[in-house]
Amino acid sequence: MSFVEYSDCIQDGDVAIVYLGHESMTPVKVKRGAQTQTRYGVIRHSTDLIGQRYGSKVTCSKGGWVYVLHPTPELWTVNLPHRTQILYTTDIATITMMLELKPGSVVCESGTGSGSLSHAILRTIAPTGHLHTVEFHQQRSEKVLEEFKEHRVDHLVTVRNQDACKDGFGVTGVADAVFLDIPSPWEAVRHAKAAMKKSGGRVCSFSPCIEQVQKTCEAFSDQGFEDITSIEVLLRVHDVRTVYLPLPDFGPDPSAQIQPDSTITPPQNHASIAVKTTIPPRDVQGHTGYLTFATKPRTQL
Amino acid sequence: MGDTVDDDSLYTIKEGDYVVLKRGDVFKAVQIQTKKKVVFEKQWFFLDNAVGQLYSTTFELASGGILQPRKPKDPECSTDTKGAGTDNRNIQDDGKSQKLTRDDIETLKEQGLKGQEIIQQLIDNSSTFKDKTEYAQDKYIKKKKKKYENIVTILKPSCRILAMMYHGREPGKICHLRYDTLAQMLTLANIHANSKVLVFETCAGLVLGSVMERMGGFGSVIQMYPGGGPVRAGVESFGFPAHFHDMLHEFPICHLNALIAGTLDTTAKDLSADLKESDMAAEVKTEAEVKTEAEVKTEAEQKGSPEEQSMETNSGAHESLVPKKEEEEEKRREAKAQEKKVKQEEKRKKLAAAASLLEGRDADGLVIASRFNPCPVLMALLKFLSPSRPFVVYSQYKECLIECYTKLKEQGGTVNLKLTDYWLRHYQVLPNRTHPVLLMSGGGGYLLSGTTVAAERSKPAASRRDEEPAAKRQKVTETEG
Q: Is the domain of B383 the same as that of B454?
């Protein structure tokens, strides 16, 4: 198992995602001899997990069953321990495409936060790219590095414990793309520019507040960035349901009675019809943040 | 490690390169061919001068359709404005504010004035410009710039640019798949290097190309294609290096039933036998054809009726040529047959290669985006995925995906099913004028995504399963019919 390459079977030391049922999952560090408690009973790692194929059904001690899934950055995003506010898949997908990430890309990121985006970046830039991620909170930077090791992606990433606004990204002229998710991104724009390749590249800033966007756009413009665009993407979930719509009783229809041969079926038999449709969840995320993208043009030396 | 080479030669435009032309928000994918006229935004020009320049260079259009690299740091925002009004209370729309006529402007253009200079002329000759607010002036200049600045930027193609281009220019060709929806698909399907991905699309090759870009030439992509041959115009536009095509395989969906049933014959031995047979048939046929042709001719010659005699000079000339011609013809036929044979052999080999990739039923991802009814396609192709692998289906219509969802729920074998669409809004960000852009896309299509899991192992459950879907399938066909 690795977050950048699939394996077929679960091995000692893997991180697996236990699927407990509708939208309910939990990550498990697989360890010989260890046990995991679920609402369906105990999962014994040595017998129930190790050597089993990813995606197979595991019966727990109380007779209930779960599926064990191979980790992916998307599953990790919905299962990771939150140490900060995190980026979700909808924004991540947009960022990945708009930053033009692909295998071999060199990317700078700040802050690392809980590593939700970092894992997705690593998946996309592997096996030949590299991520330089900067986190000013020491404990968080240590914790995330530990996770990168557990997820076997640490060879693709350098974690730096510093302040991107003050000290930049620790690299110069190497990045194809820079991502900013910090409270005052405009203060890091010049560092972003310095970190990027002379031939140019793409940059993105994520901010929840429009005032931040305003300042960041000005900074991008001042630093000579081009094609500055701000967008917002929202996920809309459609829950599939069969709904039953009652039919009102219109009373006897005199015109229908003119034809005596027609057998009149009482309307009560068709008192409702079934419709397969979708409904929106009652509450949805109405805002995550604004995404501002820009292109750094080639800089003459 | 991180220090990759930032070599200019990587960014130089070469002849034969696939590039994207950009002007404002408009894109067009073209190939760099010298002496070839390109039409873009109602203007024609030649790309000859782009060769040897660097990507992302902006060119100015000179007379005769010649491109000239725009000098760096052109005085871009130096338009002279001279004061501004506070509001629009004094501005009348009487159609007389601009003193320059259309003809005047055309004359200016013919005199070779640059876009910037024409705009300055327009401002100088506008009676209301100085009364407009600063913001309105900004807007005016921006609008005129779009109209009179003859510039074009040449970009290196990418998934982002091509997806935006197709969506803007020819959405019908890509089933109205919006670029942000494509972005979601690539992420939800966990497309990455060193995996094996199945793609079924009728989006001009845009989806396939995007998948290939994300795999960076590592791993394998199998394009499951409908109809006579795979459509890949969009893939070309990506301008991938040659080795990217080594990971691309193709399998005709019309052989899928045979493959699933295990009756698809792609073994080399049977292949050649098959080929021989068909070739022999072809050869026999040609021989027969030749014979009949010859017969007809001799008959005509022998008859020698007055009518035919009048053509004698012709046929006489023919006669001497006939043996030679026939020989040539035969040679040509043989060569053609040989060529056909080679091509067929190649095709068979490709089919065999794709089939062997599929036979393991261990693909790592599945992406469907087509104009076909997605449900049968999804049901058929899901069989080829390993357990615990993501899949994503795009449709322009939600109802088709509801059907897929229902069927998957009945059948089992998948978890985390989600039916979604995406809402995309652009913002104008300007000092004191920040607001959403007035026009937004009404919809970008729908996605159904999920993860495969292993089929049931315990026997009683399995048998129950076998019966259940069968009954339901019947029901479905009933309602369909």
A: yes
- At residue B291, the pLDDT reads 42
A-proximal residues of B, 151-180, CB under 8 Å: 158-160, 163, 179-180
Give A210's contacts in chain B (Cβ within 8 Å).
434
Which candidate in B218, B393, B429 is best for mutational testing of the A interface (most A CBs within 10 A)? B429
Clarify whether residues B399 and B314 are in a common domain: no
Residue of A nearest to B364 (CA): A6
Nearest C-alpha of chain B: how many angstroms from A249?
A: 27
Nearest residue of A to residue B196 by CA position? A6
The helix or strand, by DSSP H or E, that contains position A160, with its residue range, turns out to be strand A157-160
Subunit contact B427:A232, Cβ cutoff 8 A: yes
**Is B17 in the same domain as B147?**
yes
- CB contact (8 A) between residue A128 and residue B216: yes
Q: Is B322 inside any structural domain? A: yes
Partner A, chain B 261-300, Cβ-Cβ below 8 Å: none
Q: Do β-strands A130-134 and A106-110 pair in parallel, antiparallel, or remain unpaired?
A: parallel
Alpha-carbon span B164 to B176, nearest angstrom: 11
- Domains parsed from chain A with CATH numbers: 15-71 (3.10.330.20), 77-234+286-296 (3.40.50.150)
Buried b (16+ CB within 10 A) or exposed e, B112-143: ebbbbebbbbbbeebebbebbeeebbbebbee
- Contact present, B44 and B30 (Cβ < 8 Å): no
Say which residue the tokens 């194929």 belong to. Answer: A53
Question: A274 to chain B: which residues are within 8 Å by CB?
Answer: none
- At residue B85, the pLDDT reads 80
Say yes or no for a CB contact (<8 Å) between A199 and B11. yes
pLDDT tens track for A35-47: 999 999 999 999 9
Least CB-CB distance to A240: which of B218, B406, B421? B406
Residue B240 lies in a domain: yes
Closest-CA residue to A28 (of A49, A9, A8, A3): A49
Q: Residue-wise over A156-182: b if at least 16 C-beta within 10 A, else e?
A: bbbbbbbbbbeebbbbeebbbbbbbbb
Express as a percent the part of chain B with pLDDT over 90: 53
Q: Domain range spanning residue B321?
A: 268-347
The span from the CA of B56 to the CA of B158, in Å, is 13
Instruction: Give the ipTM.
Output: 0.95
Contacts B3 to A, Cβ<8 Å:
174
**Is B354 a domain residue?**
no
- Is there a contact between A4 and B190 if contact means CB atoms under 8 Å apart? no
Cross-sheet strand order for the sheet of B58-62: B26-31, B18-23, B151-155, B58-62, B66-69
- Among the partner-chain residues A174, A230, A238, the one whose CB lies closest to the CB of B3 is A174
Query: Is it true that the peptide bond before A127 is cis, omega within 30 degrees of 0?
Result: yes
The three state secondary structure string of A1-70 is: CECCECCCECCCCCEEEEEEECCEEEEEECCCCCEEEECCEEEEHHHHHCCCECCCEEECCCCCEEEEEC
Same domain, B17 and B138: yes
DSSP state, B455? P
Distances (CA, A) of B233 to A122, B176, B223: 30, 17, 14
Chain B residues lying within 8 Å of A197, measured CB to CB: 6
Cross-chain Cβ contact B183/A94 below 8 Å: yes
How many independent structural domains does chain B possess? Answer: 3
Say if B49 is an interface residue toward chain A (CB within 8 Å).
no
The tokens for A84 are 């900060």
pLDDT in tens, B401-459: 999 999 999 999 999 999 999 999 999 999 999 999 999 999 999 999 999 999 865 43
Chains A, B: CB contacts within 8 A come to: 193
pLDDT over 70 at B479, yes or no: no
Coil, strand or helix at B227: coil
Residues of B within 8 A of A100 (CB-CB) are 158-160
Token look-up 């510093």 returns: A162
